Amino acid sequence: MGQGIIIKALSGFYDVLVEDKVITCKGRGLFRKKKITPLVGDYVEIETQEDGSGTIVNVEKRRNELIRPPVANIDQAIIVSSLVEPDFNPLLLDRFLALIEFKDINPLVVFTKEDLTTEKQINELNEFTKVYQTIGYDVLVVSKVMDDLNEKIFPYLKNKLSVIAGQSGVGKSTLLNQLDQGLEIETNNISKSLGRGKHTTRHVELYPIGKGFVADTPGFSSLDFDEIELEELRFCFSEFLEVQDSCKFRGCLHINEPKCAVKEAVKQGDIAQFRYEHYQNFFEEIKSRKPRY
């Protein structure tokens, strides 16, 4: 019996890293009956056979999981946001941040293509960076050439399982290839008509990079709020948590309620106006969602 982490899943076979050895395993037949599907990132117990293969006999409880890509126990999401081509989209960044907060994953915001920006764009970026850093998020700014990338990002990878997220065309695959040149992930040029890139990956795999693991598949191909209920959304904006205990009503949703400490903080400039507007956007989106039965 040994314990390890699943680093690759493909066609019902799982590569499990046990100390320094990779053992290819199958799941127990019982898993199918119990509807347990082992995921990349799962910590598991295995039994090994004489021929060197193994069987997964137990999957430990997950801290979190993503459906697309299917990865469990993620510590960190590196959100890649380009400044140009495609242009920086704060609404989209806040959508990623809300989803990541909901999954209890720590975000690292990386702005790319700094070398292609104008002075005006850099000044705007500095304002956004200040807001996110005040909230408590780590923010890195890197150039398209990314010579400084490894030096900047490697310290954040240590002892963590990371996924990379961001809209199409922002350079997620380029970033992964730069972190580990052995990956050779296909990157396709941005389609000029659509303004977005293409990416195809057939399975998920974890690579040991910077003394941690990085999933080779860009994360969050689905960006809807299907899993988040109206009452939960306010907890996905961490700056709200600092003031919401002062709201008059205990279950204040920070929309129409009187004496709302969050709305007051927005008025005073302690919470960024754009962040609150994005919260209102997402709130309306969830509210108008068709009920599920």
TrEMBL record:
<keyword id="KW-0378">Hydrolase</keyword>
<feature type="binding site">
    <location>
        <position position="254"/>
    </location>
    <ligand>
        <name>Zn(2+)</name>
    </ligand>
</feature>
<keyword id="KW-0694">RNA-binding</keyword>
<feature type="binding site">
    <location>
        <position position="260"/>
    </location>
    <ligand>
        <name>Zn(2+)</name>
    </ligand>
</feature>
<dbReference type="InterPro" id="IPR031944">
    <property type="entry name" value="RsgA_N"/>
</dbReference>
<keyword id="KW-0690">Ribosome biogenesis</keyword>
<keyword id="KW-0547">Nucleotide-binding</keyword>
<dbReference type="GO" id="GO:0046872">
    <property type="term" value="F:metal ion binding"/>
</dbReference>
<feature type="binding site">
    <location>
        <position position="247"/>
    </location>
    <ligand>
        <name>Zn(2+)</name>
    </ligand>
</feature>
<comment type="similarity">
    <text>Belongs to the TRAFAC class YlqF/YawG GTPase family. RsgA subfamily.</text>
</comment>
<keyword id="KW-0699">rRNA-binding</keyword>
<dbReference type="InterPro" id="IPR010914">
    <property type="entry name" value="RsgA_GTPase_dom"/>
</dbReference>
<dbReference type="GO" id="GO:0005737">
    <property type="term" value="C:cytoplasm"/>
</dbReference>
<dbReference type="GO" id="GO:0042274">
    <property type="term" value="P:ribosomal small subunit biogenesis"/>
</dbReference>
<dbReference type="Pfam" id="PF16745">
    <property type="entry name" value="RsgA_N"/>
</dbReference>
<keyword id="KW-0862">Zinc</keyword>
<dbReference type="GO" id="GO:0003924">
    <property type="term" value="F:GTPase activity"/>
</dbReference>
<dbReference type="GO" id="GO:0005525">
    <property type="term" value="F:GTP binding"/>
</dbReference>
<dbReference type="GO" id="GO:0019843">
    <property type="term" value="F:rRNA binding"/>
</dbReference>
<keyword id="KW-0479">Metal-binding</keyword>
<keyword id="KW-0963">Cytoplasm</keyword>
<keyword id="KW-0342">GTP-binding</keyword>
<dbReference type="InterPro" id="IPR012340">
    <property type="entry name" value="NA-bd_OB-fold"/>
</dbReference>
<dbReference type="InterPro" id="IPR004881">
    <property type="entry name" value="Ribosome_biogen_GTPase_RsgA"/>
</dbReference>
<dbReference type="InterPro" id="IPR027417">
    <property type="entry name" value="P-loop_NTPase"/>
</dbReference>
<feature type="domain" description="CP-type G">
    <location>
        <begin position="63"/>
        <end position="223"/>
    </location>
</feature>
<protein>
    <recommendedName>
        <fullName>Small ribosomal subunit biogenesis GTPase RsgA</fullName>
        <ecNumber>3.6.1.-</ecNumber>
    </recommendedName>
</protein>
<dbReference type="Pfam" id="PF03193">
    <property type="entry name" value="RsgA_GTPase"/>
</dbReference>
<dbReference type="InterPro" id="IPR030378">
    <property type="entry name" value="G_CP_dom"/>
</dbReference>
<comment type="function">
    <text>One of several proteins that assist in the late maturation steps of the functional core of the 30S ribosomal subunit. Helps release RbfA from mature subunits. May play a role in the assembly of ribosomal proteins into the subunit. Circularly permuted GTPase that catalyzes slow GTP hydrolysis, GTPase activity is stimulated by the 30S ribosomal subunit.</text>
</comment>
<feature type="binding site">
    <location>
        <begin position="112"/>
        <end position="115"/>
    </location>
    <ligand>
        <name>GTP</name>
    </ligand>
</feature>
<comment type="subunit">
    <text>Monomer. Associates with 30S ribosomal subunit, binds 16S rRNA.</text>
</comment>
<feature type="binding site">
    <location>
        <position position="252"/>
    </location>
    <ligand>
        <name>Zn(2+)</name>
    </ligand>
</feature>
<feature type="domain" description="EngC GTPase">
    <location>
        <begin position="72"/>
        <end position="221"/>
    </location>
</feature>
<feature type="binding site">
    <location>
        <begin position="166"/>
        <end position="174"/>
    </location>
    <ligand>
        <name>GTP</name>
    </ligand>
</feature>
